Amino acid sequence: MTSKIRQLFQEELEQLAQIKSICNDQQYKNNELLDHYTSMANIFERNLQSMMKMTKISDSQQLYLQEIQHELEREIEERIKAEEKVADSYKRHRRNQFLLDLAEGNRSFDETASNTARQLKLYLPTMFHVFYLQLTSWQGIPFSRSAVDAAEVQAAIDTLVDKLNGCQRLVAWEWGDGIGLLHPALPNETKEQQINTGLGLKQQLARSFSHIEFAVGVAGKQGKMDSFAHHCYQARAAAALGCRLWPGRAVYHFHDGQAYQLLYPLADGQDAEEFIERMVGNLLDYDRNNNTDLMITLKRILQSSNLKVVAEEMFLHHKTIVSRKQRIESILGTSLEPFDVRFNIAIALHLLEFRC
Asked: For the whole model, what pTM was predicted?
């Protein structure tokens, strides 16, 4: 009986030694809670050693000691998990901030940045395509930060970023209402190949995160680290513009925007608003006050080679279109014949389309 009791004591001491080893791990150095657990384990160890000398222990005392030990083990395990979660979150934040600074042009990729990437264990591809995954729908509803649970969305984005970074050779980071992504590129990949890669990414995420919808923007061509910010801008602009102009598509390539990509960054500025007002403000007011649709006719006139084509497209008589053109010119106070007038009005209409 005595030997059996001493064996139980010895087993308890061995388990306590394992707990103390965990608590003394260097990664938890200066952790007040684990220091407290270590102190508790030392006290418990001394008590056991004292009780071993007595060689007698009741069944109830033995159960009580085991319960204390198991509770201590559970608390230490939960604390370690919490510490690991905090460490993962901190690591993700540092990677995100580093890549975000590069993407927004706040930092150049010099030798210092290269060293930082190695410290963060970021294995950046030499040549890559940049994709931007813009969050457009959450649980079947058009995405809006003000209409969702911010903590739930943040948790989902964190999970997505971790999942993508877990894929071989992909580098992902949180960026605005979406995720930036570097994908390794092969020399001379075509636009179609880039789009197919974007479609593959979209389908992969849809299988794992069916409650989230993304619009995928693709930069114009493959890039290198010295042009990181430029290509990141293109990918994000492609997604933003594509959602406005072609909402039915799954992937938007920067080159599809053509001249629209030059105008889009200007659309929300004060200068653009004043330009729109100068060019077509009077016609907008006229349509609004008289419940007419002369703006539609103006667009067709600018898009067509002659008024006969406009009449056929709108299923109206040629004279009706001529009359509408004259009324539009009267309201705008200018002829629609000169090239520069047509050009400036067309620019104003495109800017207006972005702002709607």
From this structure: 0.68
